[in-house]
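I have been asked to look over a protein record a colleague put together. This is what I was given:
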Amino acid sequence: MLTNVQLAFGTEKTSAELLQIARKNYTHYALTGLEWIQSITWRRQDFLERTECHWVDVQKRMNEGEGGLLLTSHLGNWEFAIQSASAHGMPCDVIVKRQGTRMAQDFLEWFRTRFGAGVIYESGTTRDIFGFWPEALRGFCFRSVHGPAHRASREVF
């Protein structure tokens, strides 16, 4: 982590500032991990009561038959965000890579789809990955790219 922070900031920051940034990043990872673990036990009702999804404009457009597409990258607690959006009724699909083990694959597929989100695997053909565009334009659909933004833009798009 410290090496990445040093590469990002170069000589712009002191060693103490770089160390502080790296520590804050690790704190963020820990909090995100704990949040994710906690969300495993949450039901739809828990997300509805404990989170907010500000998408009134999107709902209005959907009700009027307008389409749209919202692309995001993996920022913050992405897994938590997709759960919240799905629980609140926002149509969602995520583009992800398959996991290295069957157990991890089964768990994450359950976790990501339990409130209605769909999963599109990045390892599919271009047609599989981009085939959702016409559907999304008929009715608004939230699409999220799972993975660091710089990788997602290069590997998926």
